[in-house]
User: Which sequence fits this backbone?
């Protein structure tokens, strides 16, 4: 799973996600991409599941770039625990995602294979996504 080697603090506040993605909203590496249309916290497990779906469909050909990284720790209190007594223990890491953010990019495969791979990956994610192609792409 993806997670930071070291964090400054064990626990973090939730914060508010609003507005469109200001960075990471253009294709930078590949010709094909998967772009989000909603706000969300993507867990490390969801990102890994989507990555596996893409690489399996592409038959390990071409190249994949993961454009997000889970850096935000999230906590959870144990079941059947009363309110109070402080914040819960860290459970894992999430990547906060806003609309317009590119999640994955691919290169080195045909348009049809890339489209199908991104479709399979989108089913592993809890957000609405959109398949995008580089403007100057020619088959």
Assistant:
């Amino acid at each position: 799973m993806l997670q930071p080697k070291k964090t400054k603090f064990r626990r973090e506040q939730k914060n508010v996600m609003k507005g469109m993605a200001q960075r990471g909203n253009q294709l930078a590496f590949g010709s094909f991409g998967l772009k989000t249309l909603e706000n969300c916290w993507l867990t490390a497990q969801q990102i890994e599941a989507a990555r596996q779906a893409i690489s399996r469909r592409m038959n390990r050909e071409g190249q994949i770039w993961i454009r997000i990284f889970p850096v935000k720790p999230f906590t959870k209190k144990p079941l059947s625990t009363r309110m109070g007594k402080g914040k819960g223990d860290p459970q894992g890491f999430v990547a906060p995602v806003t609309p317009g953010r590119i999640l994955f990019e691919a290169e080195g495969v045909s348009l049809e294979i890339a489209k199908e791979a991104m479709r399979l990956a989108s089913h592993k994610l809890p957000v609405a996504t959109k398949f995008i192609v580089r403007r100057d792409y020619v088959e």
